[in-house]
Amino acid sequence: MERGKMSSSGRGGKSKAPQHPQDIFALGSKSTVVVSRDSEKRNIHKPSTSGVERKRDTAGFGSQPPSKRARIGSPAESVAGTSLEVDPVDLVPNVLQALDTHNSDKLLGLLTGSIRLLKSQRSKPDPILCMSMLYLTKIRPNMFAHETVTQSLCTLLKREQGAAFKSKGNPLVFVLACNMLYAGHKDSSNWPDTFIKVYIEDALNERWWVDCSWCKCLVENIVTAFGTKPPPAHLIPGDSTIGTMSPSGSGSPLMGSNEEEVDNTDLEYSVYPRYSSSYESVEALVLEAIKEQLQRRAAPDAIGKGFLKLLSATCGFPEIRMIAASRLEAWLHSGKLWRGAQELLAHVCANAAAAGPHAPRDHEVLAQLARMRLKTKPLQAAYQACLREMVSDSPALLRSVVTHTIYNELSNVRSPNNMAVLAALIHAQPQQVPAAMADTYQELLLRTEDYLRPLRALTRECVRAARQDCAALLPLARALAAPPPHDPPQEIRERAFQSLADLFCCCCLVTAAHGKQQAHAAELRAQLCALQQQALGWLLDTAAPVYRPARHDYQLALNKIMFVEPAETYSKPDNWPPESERAAIYRLCTEAPLPQNTLLRLIFIGISKDIPVSPTEVFELIEQLVRRACALPPEDCPLQVDKLEIADYIFQLCQFHPPDNITLPPGYTPPPLAITSLYWRGWLLLTMLAAHNPQGFAERAAATYPTLRALIECCITGKPSIEWSSAGAEGERSEAERAAILTLETHLAAASNAKLPVTESSSRLLSQLSMVEPSGPARRPPAAVVEALQALSGQLRLGRLLCRQPALLLQLVERHGTRRAMPWLHQLLRHDRLELSVLPVQCLCEFLSAGGAGGAGGEAGKAGELAAHVRRTLHSEQGARAVLHYYLVRLAHAHAPTRASANRGLKLVLSDDTTEMDYNAEVNPESWLSLLPTLKHWESLRAETVARVRAACLAECVPAHLAAYFCFLADYVDDTPLQDHTDIVLDLSQVMMERTTVCAHALPSADRRALDSTTRAQHRALHAVTRVLHAHLRQAFAHEESEEEVAGGSVAGAEGAEGEGAAWAGGERITLQWATGRRCTLHVSVAHTHLKLLCYGPSILDTNQELYGWLSGVWAGAEGPAAAGGDELLLPDWLRLHLVRSARPALLELAVRGLPAHKLALFIQTFGLPVASMSALLEALDACPAGAVVRLGVERGYMAQLLRVQRARGVRGGHAFAAALHLQLPLHPPDEQLFAEAPLPLEEEEWWQAGRAPRLDAAAVPALLGAAFDERATMRDDVDVAVTHLNAMIASEAAMGGGPCTAAALGFLRGAALAGLARRAAVAAPLLRTLLHARPPALAEVALGLLSQCKLARGPVAEALRVAARGGLGARRPAALPALPLPAAKEQLVAAMEAATPSTLEAIGNRIIETQDTQVVVEAITQLLENNQDGRYEVKREVEEEGLRALGAHVLSRRGLGCGLLLDWLAELHRETLGNQMRLMFMAGGAAWRPLLVTLLAHRASWRTLHACLSALLQPNGGWEARAVLDLAETLAGSERTWQGRDRAAHLHHPSDDALRLTHQQLDVLISYVGAEAYSAERGAGLEAARRCVEARLPLLLRCCSAPHSLLAAALAASRTHPLLLLLLYMKVPKVLQLVRESGARVGSAPALGGAELRGAARASTSATDRVSHALLTALAAAPPVHSKEHTQRAWRIEAAARAVWARGLGAGERALPLAGALLRGVRARHHHHLLAALEMLPDRDLFVPPASEEIHGILDCFLSMVKPSAGGGGGALLHRIAALLRRYHAARPARAAALLHAHRETIASQPALSAACGAESGGASSASPPPHALLALRRRVAPPDELAWMLQEVEAWGVRRGGAWGGAACAGGLLRAAAPLAASAHAPVRGAALSLLAKLLPAAPDTTPGLQAILECLDSSQPEIGQAVLEKLPELIIGMQEHAARILMRVFELGVRSRQPVDQCLAKCVATINLHRGC
Predict the structure, then answer these.
(1) For residue 166, what is the DSSP state?
(2) How far apart are CA 639 and CA 801, in angstroms?
């Protein structure tokens, strides 16, 4: 648009008016205004001070009712009268003038008029007017913030109602209005709602300015009111032409340019929230407009694109999102709206929130989105992209999206794009989405409906939709393994558990199904292993505590997860996998490896006690899995383990644990035992693991576990291990193992009340258990285990797998050595596929040295190949070093065959001879030692070779071999350094000094003259040793001279020489000095070797004896060496003797040089000395002084005989020696009887066999029976034994139809009296039963005759007679038994027994038992007993017995005989009495036979039954009879079955075992039964009966309360049950009170111990404090009469202990008053004050209560009787204390005290202290309370130390005057709390005074806690003097606090351990003091 055209379109008369300056620019990217310097123009731009105030009318545009829409321009039109007509040219000057004159009305009129003018020119606005408005906006933007101006400008943004434009026209007016509105309101944070309305109106219609890019400054600030978050740009559809509005042309709307500019809308503006305070009103406006549009345009086609854009812009409101989500599906499928709908979908997803107040609405939005059914792929892709972006921006929405998608998929109206959505989400969030799916899975599984099949299908479809990507299954399984958010209901736990296990299996199957194309891919195996590990983690950590499955269900789930169930098990829910693919998929799952983590989790499942599956079942599963994994290819690494802890875990699975219900003896710890079969199978399991992990695990495990090492050896060799050959050690271990198992089984049998002793023959555990010693010596497995191992090794190739580790082979070869044949090595090396380079060279060497080359045919060829390979190995330095090291090390082996094989191997390897070697022939080292220098790398191998040959010299026992080694060493010492040379010489010295036997054969003897081959070899060896020693000594001389020359006498040189000498290895050294000045330092052993070598003489190979002559001259010449330490070190006695034996003159002279006479005398007594040597010795003895010879003290006779023998040999000398000793020939007296044989005494014959007892004669039977039934008989035992023999003879005669003894017995009974038989029922009844068994014909007649004597007789004799008589009648008239059907009902059996008579009941019962079902019979008997218990059979009826009719009691009545039969039958048929029988035993009002059932239950039932019975009885509100329950509990607690195998006599200080092991709840019920029994007794016979009842039950309660917590629970239950029970419990266990008080302090209150009435009733019971009090009082009264400090101190300690017991034991002193009074009457006069001190401790309530007042009256009477009248009458402290006690007595019992005072009036009158008490004076020698100033000072502890010490002494003096009372318990406690902290004072006097006071105060204090804390603080002090002070005083302190003695002594012991303080004496004194009181 051209400028001229724009100007002509304005008002015509003003077209030529002057234009505005050129520095005015339109609002754009550059808003800088250049101000003109013209003053006039400067005034125009001057800011106005009277700008229009910006106001906001809340009753403006937005206040109209929503039912009727008002016109937007109406507010401006209402002020139309105020607007002024204005010319565009004059607008700016007029406005500036109005601003200068502050004429607001004119200003408002000008602005509104210009806006009206602009509105009228909307299609073609005047450029001057536009520029003027822009200029004013630029210089005065606040003018446009006025309400009227704002409303007028809003009219420009409103669409004209009447006008209808065909096109959008010129946007210039909209752009001007928007920019002016923004400029006016840009600084305001609260914009008017009018902007929202005009925005909504334009957005819903033509969108003229809403989409205009020039209006962004206003639009974007308006949009902040909606709070809408824009979605990412890639989610908006690419074609953005829908609803957009560009300015006319492509240039600026103001300039009218046609040039295309890429970006001319870069405006500078700010955007921030403008409607933060009017959120609700804005939301209401938006919702009103949206809902109105929806009502108008209900059809989808009626909706415009602008409406969708408005919805997108307002998606910040949750209601808008809800409205949009509910209609998006239709809009997306609309042909013209789908792009806008996609944009709306992106906005909805971007603004959804997972948290906050609108979260529920957004979850509904997500549910709506999930239900959409999108038909085209582009829409689905857009939808998935929006969801991906939503969950990535807000992960909290992920769970909701996934949940809604899954729910929709599982519904009947599922969307077809659900799987695609899930797949897209999984690709976007591969970890979070599976976790959200798992949460939804768990939520569905915990519902009442079964969702297993849909979830399996959903899982498969998800993987299929994800393009076969199974990676999401692992995070899905990991999330499924997590615990559910809440515990599942009980009714669906089992199904949920099984479903989850099936889902884990489904994940594995899906993985295998989609990876079957890559069946052997590592990813597939790793995925399957990871899934199984997650499933096992779920079973281990979550399944058991959450779902609590049964054992069978858990085992089934475990088997399913590990795929050991059949393949059909996995396809049961939905028949997937299909049958065609099932086998392949199942095979892939079963071929998954078994990694270490999986194995460990399986083991932990078996070890855990909280998991229902047993360790044995888990072990069998692990064994099956390991075997399955071993069958897989080894290259796939199916078993990868590296932790040695797996072995310990496996053995834990095999361990044997004693039953939990059996209590082992205290102090006995069962040995670690394992089930034998599992134990050895565990070793096989470890062997399989080692075979598949030979590199790391196998080597370390074999080194740690010898048994595994032996099994590995067995696998490799195929033979038993050599480590199993030690039969002796194995026998010892087996014996110890049997002893341990028998000991354990003995304890178990004793605990289970077994009657038979446990021996090796009767043991059940001996063959089933083994000792667990994995790290111990290798044990020989059973033969079956060895066979199983060999079978496994053959099937699974374990031996070949183990051979992959060379270290194992090397160890095996080294262990075998040559002691055993190694055919396994031959087989290994003969393997065709084996490469020799793979095996270690040591194995090849062993093969060759062990005879591998000695085969024939193919074997010889293989051996030759191996030898050639080893020879090739010698060409490399490393290979040669390894080969030589292997062989040369074995040359020093202690085993001779090993050395021989090494020689053979070296000869075979080093020689090129290919001829066959004889492996039985001996190989001399000379054959291969000469070949060593020919090696290529000999120089580098030489040092090690020489070292190994030196070591071989120390071990070789063959002289020829040792000689060869000597020669080899001699050949290579010439150019050897001195250090190495010295090492060689030291080894040779050791050989010659220590291995004399072999050296004697390797070196020639001096007297051997023949020169054969052996002698020549020996001379070669001697020459070699001589060369070595000669060269070494010369080298040492040269080195010493060079050192001296280099040193030049300097200190540094001397130090260097010393350092070089120090580098030599070996023992002690000696410095030798020769007369020529030569000097040398040698090892002592080397010097001795030189001298010993000289004894052998020169070698024949030593030319002219040069070497020997030089050595002899050096050592034995005239100028021989002199040792620095004397000749004793150089020439010890043993070496001198060697030199003497050599008989060489030079050596003889050297040997006898300087020898004293006594050593010469010893040497001549040596046998085998040569004549020359003996002559030299005797000549040396002749040269000794005569006095020295006389003082030898030798036996003269022996010496004379020795000299005579030696002279006979030709020895010279010894005459002077014989003359000095006056030697004569010995005379021996004849002794012909010396060797006479003494005669041996004759043996006497033994007579230990006794004759057989004579047989009882029939004639003696009457006399025997007469003596048996005679009351006057005395020898009862012999008669009873004879009667027993008679019964046996009658029984033996019964088989023959009778005999003389039977006839004699019947004859005696014919004349016997029934009364006599009844008196001896123990004899008569067995006799009658035996005769009844024999059935003689006359027995019935005899029985009837005896019964006729007394028809009413009762007892076993009468019953036996009736049976015998009935047998006779029955023979004549058999009784008819009722006919019963088979099987019969319980009612029929009951009726048959009820109809029986006494004569037929037993027969009927036996018939029923034989023919009917046992369970039905038991129920019938139980019913009959219940009827008997209810009294239903007490009505008399007519019965027929023995042909007589009579009216008698029912046979099943309480007095009838039928109950006994019923009980016997019940006991026989039903040993485990439970169920209905419990009502018979424990219900109230039971019959008299109930104890029998209880006894049978206790003695015959199993422990499980007894435990169940006791648990049922001890349930709360059980309603059982208290006495019956308590009787059963006592029976079980004291049953002999419990004590089998234990000491029946309990130890003195051994606590009783808690056999019942009751819980606190059960203990509470038991105590309630005790209380109920006590209340019942109290109602019947009073409180005393209740006391007796409770006291009878207390041992049971105490046995059940062995632990402190149980004791506390019993005390609390007793306090709630019966107060007397708590009191008596306290009397038995006084610490109950402290426990109850502590618990009361926690819960708020502690129960009291009862009132006076209960305490009075409890006085008749014993208390635990009685024994202590009586012991202390007795010891106090029995003090010895000797007056000493020790006895006085002992008496004081006993008194203090008594006071401590009485101060802290409730009622203890009151109960001891009778004994105190009795002892006081007989106590000595000097000890009664100790008793008085103890009595003073008691309070008035204990001293003067009615029962105790009489005792205290007598005690006071004794004290007054002891007081003698004295004339002086002063009295001492004792009289004042008696007076104080009298005053207390007078105050409590005035009448009784007055009588006592009257009786002793004369004594009282003579003593002023007592007379004061008689006069009731309150004063006395001591105050009743401590000095107040002293007590206050001690409490404050601010006084100086000296003053504090004085205060402590004053309080102590006051307490001594008070005796033992210390002013009462409260006063003593206050003093203790005040004085105790001063015990740790750094001031010694204060510390000593405080400790002294504590020693006297502690026995009187009821609470000793402050004293304990003070003592512990002293012991922990860093100042040793404080600890030492308390240690010195501790024996006195510990008396008053013996309850804390253990803790204090332990702290003292720790102090002694960590410091140097002497605590042993203190500990000994304290223990002695405690033992003193214990011994009291």
Answers:
(1) S
(2) 12
